Amino acid sequence: MLEVKSVSKSFKSGDGTVSAVNNISFKIKPGVFASIIGPSGSGKSTLISLLGALDRPSNGTITVEGQEISSLNDHDLISYRAKNVGLIFQAYNLIPNLTALENVMLPMEFAKVSKDDREKRAKELLDKVGLAGDKQLRKPGKLSGGEQQRVAIARALSNNPKIILADEPTGNLDSVNGQNIFNLLHDLSKSQKTTVIVVTHDIGLAGKTDMQLSLKDGKLTTKGNVPKNNR
Amino acid sequence: MNALSRGIRNAFRNQIRTIAVVGILSLSIGLSLAMLVAHKTVNQKIASIKANAGNSITISPAGFSNFSQVNNALTVSQLSQVSTLPHITALSETLTDRLTTIGSAQPSFFGDRSSSASSNNLTSLTSPITINTSGRGGRFFAFGGGSNIATNFTPPISIVGTNDPYVLNSQNLTLSSGSFINGSKDTNQAMVSTDMASKNNLKVGSTFTAYSQTLTVTGIYTSGSNQSLSNNIIVALLTEQRLSGQSGVVTGATATVDSLNNLSSATSAVQKALGSSADVTSSQTIANNTIAPLNNVSSVSLYSLIGAVVAGAIIILMIMVMITRERRREIGVLKAIGASNLKVVTQFISEAVTFAVLAAVVGIIIGVAAASPITNTLVNNSSTSSTRFNPSSSNQQSSGAGPVFARGGRGFGRISNDISNIHAVAGLSIIGYGLGAAIIIAVAGSSAAAFFIAKVRPAEVMRME
Asked: CB A159 to CB B343 under 8 A?
């Protein structure tokens, strides 16, 4: 269970402070495929950063499986991220001079998985996301956008995380590839019982998720389950 | 693949940059090594010269010059009080004169015409020294008719009367044949160098003339390639005093002190005993004066070494700052997917060390190749002013001169000779220093990058989208 209670995040800007996320509360059950929608500057990426333990909230608490992550020190946060959070970015953010396989192995190295185990699991994950054969040994520059995003998804899954956070995962892809990636994430959330939270501008895609969170000016405006016939 | 191997691989990510970085760093490391070699070599030379200078005191008449043979020489009776002073263990006295080969043109020295060789100062021997008659060789000699050297000119020969025939110009003599003369006995016996013997077809038992007297060769000593030894005839002090008509006169003496610790006080005591009639110089003072140019080289090489090392550190520091700024997003991603600061810093240090080790390999080659020429250039440029008028230095052949012309004692010529005789060799220890310094430079140069990496927050990667 992911529980967010009265979370706010503000940043210093010049002489004043900007409130990026303002007093947000919600809960998401394990295995739920949720989406966060909202216009630019509404605080979506900031909320993802807080949920992914990339940043600490200014106020409020975030609890994952009973563990309050907002109060963890830097060292524990790094360990928490490595083992419990999978991140997918709009621009893929793969390491350019590592192969697809090595990119997927990277988070497992940080989680201290043995070399043999991480290579075996990375191959399995790449097979699972549909990147098989010699493409696994290609560097990101030699892969298409859709393929790179598949590698990024495999990387996010590598440590069997409790939560996968995807910031505009289909933003740089055409509609067909975007739909494929979206379906892949949906299937993963169901098959692996992993909580997947996707930030998107695409209302259509958001309508297919289990739960929708709408943000505007840092505040949660809508929170609720999407009717099953809309998914 | 771990952080170290990722860092090594990252070093080759941009080949043009890698070549540029390695090229610049290798020059810095090469220069550092060359300067380290120069510094070490020169310091070893300084220590060696000081150690070999010995604990002796050189005594010469005040204002005395072997060129002019002015009439203020010391006397045996004056020097007798020196041998009774505390800590003086031995006193070697010499009377040096110049002989002209019969039939040779007679030059004057530095315009000193009053003391040119008299008709009695003639010898049947010919100097083994050859001079360059077409070049600068004759600049120490003046001829009445002009500045060119006369075709019948041969260099003058030194005749040294000594009570210690085992040593000449502070160098122990080795006989190749015959026996040493008795330094305290007035006989017409002489020792000549192997060069002199060869030039004049002399062997033990041969005779020659000097001061219109016939002298017999009893010993031939080895001069090797040392020209300050080769152009001499050695006779007993009493013999030279008699032959030259300078009874009781000496032109130089060397007092040996019982230990280096007493050298300074003994030098003062000798100066006090002889007053203003003598110039008294300790071997260490001569050595110190002589090695002054080497001290300059040592300082220059040390400052250059520090400069090159600092430049290398700044180069790698700037490069690593540039690289980390360029890869800010990548650092954020690594942290976001679970890398600790230490892991990321290790990766960048590994990259910097790879650059530095590659540069060290090239730099060591540059340093080893450049060390000797740079050291020799520094030493030669620095010591030119102190040795160019010293005919007993290694370029004597071209500057055309005679025996021990330099004033200031018998050891001076040998020490001066030693200065230019320097060989810089980059040994394994230097290569080890080079590699060690390169790694230290790389780690130090990565410190700013590490600081920068620590400041990158993983959340930033979300805002870069």
From this structure: no
Tell me how far apart the alpha carbons of residues A53 and A80 are, in angstroms, rounded to a whole number: 8
Q: Cα(A122)–Cα(A158) distance, rounded to whole angstroms?
A: 7
CB of A73 within 8 Å of any CB in chain B? no
List the one residue out of B422, B434, B352 whose CA is nearest residue B7: B352
Report the residue of B8, B323, B462, B465 to disrupt the A interface, i.e. the one with the largest count of A CBs within 10 Å.
Answer: B462
Positive/negative CA dihedral, B395, B397, B401, B404: positive
Beta bridge partners of B175: B221
A87 touches chain B (CB under 8 A): yes
**Model confidence over B305-314: pLDDT tens digits?**
889 888 888 8
Q: Which helix (H) or strand (E) holds B4?
A: helix B3-10
- Find out whether B437 and B29 touch, Cβ atoms under 8 Å: yes
Whether the CB of A100 is below 8 Å from some CB of chain B: the reply is: no
Question: Taking all residues of chain B, what is their mean pLDDT, rounded to a whole number?
Answer: 80
Tens of pLDDT, residue by residue over B57-80, are: 989 888 755 544 545 678 888 888
To which H or E segment does residue B5 belong?
helix B3-10
CA distance B442 to chain A (A): 22
Cα B406 off chain centre by: 16
End-to-end CA distance of chain A: 22
Which residues, other chains included, contact B376 with Cβ-Cβ below 8 Å and sequence gap of 6+? B422, B424
Please indicate whether, in this complex, the C-beta atoms of B457 and A55 are within 8 angstroms of each other: yes
Gap between the Cα atoms of A166 and B299, Å rounded: 63
| CA pair distance B362, A99, nearest whole angstrom | 31
Domain A2-11+18-223 has CATH 3.40.50.300: yes
Bridge-based pairing state of the strands A195-199 and A163-167: parallel
Encode pLDDT of B197-216 as tens digits.
Answer: 999 999 999 999 999 999 99
Phi and psi based region of residue A174 (left: phi greater than 0; alpha: psi -120 to 50; beta: remaining): beta
The reply to whether residue A95 touches residue B2, judged by beta carbons under 8 angstroms, is no
User: Which amino acid is present at A5?
Assistant: K
Encoded amino acid at B12, one letter? F
B253 and B94 in contact (C-beta within 8 Å)?
Answer: yes
Gap between the Cα atoms of A200 and A193, Å rounded: 21
**Burial, B81: exposed, middle or buried (Cβ in 10 Å; 0-12, 13-18, 19+)?**
exposed
Q: How many CB atoms lie within 10 A of CB A182?
A: 24
Which residue type, as a one-letter code, is found at position B71?
A: N
Of A52, A107, A168, the CB nearest to B465: A168
Cβ pair A45:B463 closer than 8 A: yes
Length of chain A measured in residues? 231
**What does the alpha-carbon distance between residue B210 and residue B234 come to, in Å, rounded to a whole number?**
12
- Identity of the residue in A54, A79, A105 whose CB atom sits nearest the CB atom of B459: A54
C-alpha gyration radius of chain B: 32
Rounded Cα distance between B282 and B267, Å, is 6
Both tokens assigned to B116: 């040119």
Average pLDDT, integer, range B110-139: 64
